[in-house]
């Protein structure tokens, strides 16, 4: 857990730097730095950079274990003939971050990374999961669209043992320690980034959440640029909301229509008596929001045929559970992390709630309205 938290803290620094450079008006470095994957989702230097540093740092920390990592990115684009300039940017971002690894109580590599070291580190994350053994699961940048828009995203790292998520760490660089700071920070950030480029170290606005299975506790600490200076008095236990009346509950869901049916969840919300406007948030920050009691419900119903990937959920699931919440598929069954890179056998959608009362009502409402839906 300690290694995982430090690694995620370090990875978040890389993301913050890349995000700042993307947001600079007319920045030379921003041109051409957002790429499209085959499914047309965006990918940036940060996705590959984080995957490379997490891969290297975990392997370095656990040298005597032959660790396995399942992660989202591959090296195909970077290894291709027109990927050279991009690869160079990844090399620079990774070296800039790894040189500071000692600030997080981690080791820097003896020599600066060359292109082939980066490709090797990325390729190392080639595990395909499964029901037996132990493997790490990484989404280097969860919510890349939020990331390129200067909005919410997460670095998500989890450990799975024999098909069960045993620990999860969620780095949320734009999700402040207190909900009330959220609007203030985003407005201030947008304003300040136009006036003067943010320097690394000047932003202590994010948080890192983490939990270990079976502890019955989940924790949060501020994002820091020097782990040695982390003030542990600022770390605290997080707990789900105690609200169980739908009238006072808030639900959150993905921003993108492509990822969930907003009309179906709007109908569900109405039928269970939810009155507040849904909060649409990019990335697994939605899971952090539930674990911390900022919202009570998360619902996601993807189009038929879409298969959820384990790295988009593993870290968030264990954090929500340990913080006291309930998360299942729409049939009320736990998400199954034992069947490879996909959440195979997922029944219709995902429902996470702060408690069993709300969860029960929503699962019931899905059953009642499913057949008349177009999903
Ligand atoms: Mg991702």
TrEMBL record:
Its EC number is 3.1.3.7. It is an enzyme of class 3 (hydrolase). InterPro entries: DPNP (IPR006239), Inositol_monoP_metal-BS (IPR020583), Inositol_monoP_superfamily (IPR051090), Inositol_monophosphatase-like (IPR000760), Inositol_monophosphatase_CS (IPR020550). It comes from the Eukaryota. Keywords: Hydrolase, Magnesium, Metal-binding. Gene3D superfamilies: 3.40.190.80, Fructose-1,6-Bisphosphatase, subunit A, domain 1. It catalyses: 3'-phosphoadenylyl sulfate + H2O = adenosine 5'-phosphosulfate + phosphate; adenosine 3',5'-bisphosphate + H2O = AMP + phosphate. Mg(2+) binds at residues 72, 139, 142, 312. GO terms for biological process: inositol phosphate metabolic process; phosphatidylinositol phosphate biosynthetic process; sulfate assimilation. Signal peptide: none annotated. Its cofactor is Mg(2+). One of its GO terms (molecular function) is 3'(2'),5'-bisphosphate nucleotidase activity. Converts adenosine 3'-phosphate 5'-phosphosulfate (PAPS) to adenosine 5'-phosphosulfate (APS) and 3'(2')-phosphoadenosine 5'-phosphate (PAP) to AMP. Belongs to the inositol monophosphatase superfamily. NCBIfam families: bisphos_HAL2. This is 3'(2'),5'-bisphosphate nucleotidase. It comes from Oryza barthii. The lineage of its organism: Eukaryota, Viridiplantae, Streptophyta, Embryophyta, Tracheophyta.
């Amino acid at each position: 857990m300690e290694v995982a938290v430090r690694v995620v803290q370090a990875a978040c620094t890389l993301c913050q730097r890349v995000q700042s450079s993307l947001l600079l008006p007319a920045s030379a470095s921003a041109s051409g730095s957002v790429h499209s994957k085959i499914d047309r989702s965006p990918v940036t230097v940060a996705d590959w950079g984080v995957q490379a540093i997490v891969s290297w740092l975990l392997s370095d920390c656990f040298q005597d274990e032959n660790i396995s990592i399942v992660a989202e990115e591959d090296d195909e684009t970077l290894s291709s003939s027109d990927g050279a300039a991009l690869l160079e940017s990844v090399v620079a971002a990774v070296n800039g971050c790894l040189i500071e690894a000692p600030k997080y109580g981690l080791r820097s590599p003896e020599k600066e990374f060359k292109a082939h070291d980066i490709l090797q580190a990325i390729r190392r994350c080639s595990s395909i999961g499964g029901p037996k053994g132990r493997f790490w699961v990484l989404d280097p940048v969860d919510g890349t669209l939020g990331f390129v828009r200067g909005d919410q995203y997460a670095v998500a790292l989890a450990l799975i043992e024999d098909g069960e998520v045993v620990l999860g760490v969620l780095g949320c660089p734009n999700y402040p320690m207190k909900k009330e700071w959220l609007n203030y920070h985003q407005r201030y950030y947008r304003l300040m980034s136009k006036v003067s480029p943010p320097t690394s170290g000047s932003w202590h606005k994010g948080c890192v959440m983490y939990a270990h299975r079976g502890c019955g506790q989940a924790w949060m600490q501020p994002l820091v640029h020097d782990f040695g200076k982390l003030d542990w008095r600022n770390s605290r236990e997080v707990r789900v909301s105690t609200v169980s009346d739908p009238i006072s509950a808030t639900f959150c869901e993905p921003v993108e229509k492509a990822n969930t049916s907003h009309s179906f969840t709007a109908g569900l919300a109405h039928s269970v008596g939810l009155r507040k406007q849904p909060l649409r948030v990019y990335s697994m920050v939605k899971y952090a929001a539930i674990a911390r009691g900022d919202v009570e419900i998360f619902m996601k119903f993807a189009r038929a045929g879409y298969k959820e990937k384990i790295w988009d959920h593993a870290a968030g699931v264990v954090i929500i559970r340990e913080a006291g919440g309930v998360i299942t598929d729409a049939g009320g069954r736990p998400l199954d992390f034992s069947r490879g890179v996909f959440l195979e056998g997922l029944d219709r959608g995902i429902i996470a709630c702060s408690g069993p009362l709300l969860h029960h009502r929503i699962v019931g409402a899905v059953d009642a309205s499913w057949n008349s839906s177009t999903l």
